Amino acid sequence: MGAQEIMDLIPNRYPICYIDYVDELEPGQRIVATKNVTINESFFRGHFPGDPTMPGALIIETLAQAASILILKSPEFVGKTAYLGSVRDAKFREKVRPGDVLKLEIKMAKKRANVGIVETIARVANKVACSAELMFVVEETGQKV
After folding, report:
1. Which residues are marked as active site?
2. Domain spanning 3-140: which CATH class is it, in words?
3. Residue 96: its pLDDT value, please?
4. What biological-process GO terms show up in the record (predicted)?
5. Which residues contact 25 (CB under 8 A, 6 or more apart)?
6. What is the dihedral of CA 93, 13, 135, 126, to 10 degrees?
7. 45 phi and psi, to 5 degrees?
8. What is the DSSP string of 57-123?
9. What average pLDDT does the segment 16-26 reach?
């Protein structure tokens, strides 16, 4: 999937759409996606001057966007909207810097009714930068959670 297909699926837009493309997708099972981290990212201006580092919250957001693509491509959730419900066991192990390629791997752990739980890993140069368990609530588009 390319940028336009991603934007057709999830509501995130520039400057907060963090998925550049989807490498692999098994609907309802797993996804591998890519974020090319560039010095032009707005958050590098203040985080941290002289030592540009991608904020941990934005790494989680990037994982959540890839996870929402996986969830919304699952047959039972097509045409709906996924909302991040919780983040558990987030661990940050490596800094993410300008020029890095962030590889996102998400596996569906559980699905029930309108809830999905995924296991996520973000890697840079085959090293784990971040891992977390994310829970999503899926609702009809336009419905309040």
Report:
1. 47
2. alpha beta
3. 97
4. fatty acid biosynthetic process; lipid A biosynthetic process
5. 1, 31, 32, 69, 70, 73
6. -30
7. -60, -30
8. HHHHHHHHHHHHHHHHTSGGGTTEEEEEEEEEEEEE-S---TT-EEEEEEEEEEEETTEEEEEEEEE
9. 95
